[in-house]
Amino acid sequence: MHQRQPEMPDLRVVPVADLLLHEQHDAQRSEPLLQRLRADGVLKNPPIVAAIDGQQRYVVLDGANRVTAAHSLGIPHIAVQVVDYEDPELILDTWHHLIKGLSCAHFQSVIAGLDGVKIEATDLMQARAQLARREILAFVQYPQGQVCSLHAEGNLHQRTQRLNDIVDLYKVDYRIFRANTDHLPSLLPFYDDVAALVVFPRFAPAEIIDLARVGACLPAGITRHLIPRRALRINLPLTLLGAGATLAEKNTWLAEWVKQKAASKTVRYYQESTFLFDE
Fold first, then answer.
1. pTM of the full predicted structure?
2. What residues of the chain score a pLDDT lower than 50?
3. In this structure, are residues 70 and 16 in contact, taking their beta carbons and an 8 Å threshold?
């Protein structure tokens, strides 16, 4: 029976200067990545981007750390996977921050001292409802069952700054694990010494583009883009991306490289969900 060939990823080489971040880079991840890029000399996975402003610039949906590392290395161009932000198969979801490393009491005292944010005790169902209606900035759950909502006034850009203020309080002294659920009891069996779970709202693609255009980045590790037909392990040499060839020449080389990969049957498409244990 004939089976439809899956659409190949749209891989391009673009100027690093044309990539706009919508989230901060994560220093805990970007510095080791920078060292690995220097040591290995290859770009393993391309950043995921969507074209905006008449195809002249791109918002980085996933890969802020790779783009930041490219900036640090002085690489003028980088290989990216371009996706359609209006693709119905592309899902914009949210990561929450599971915090560990210090006591719950210390974490509560740190949050309590935050300017511009009002904290109120609540219950989980009310906090979820308020967050869904964007009436609160975020909410926090503690292992003992307490829940508190975080309130802040202002427009999207001002509230984004408050989110950065919150994450700045714990991103250095605490360890952050990304969680895709706001149900803390289901996470506790897998982590020791949990201080809190910070639960963030869902954002819309239009908000992501708006923030990227003005440089008002969200904290690292909040937005989660689920990309259909994602390209992984392209392993392109950084010497190609940093060489003196023109952008057009690099794209011609990349197109031929993709063609050769397909012809040699070294491209494999996995439609099923997977767990990777070597990341």
1. 0.89
2. 1-2
3. yes
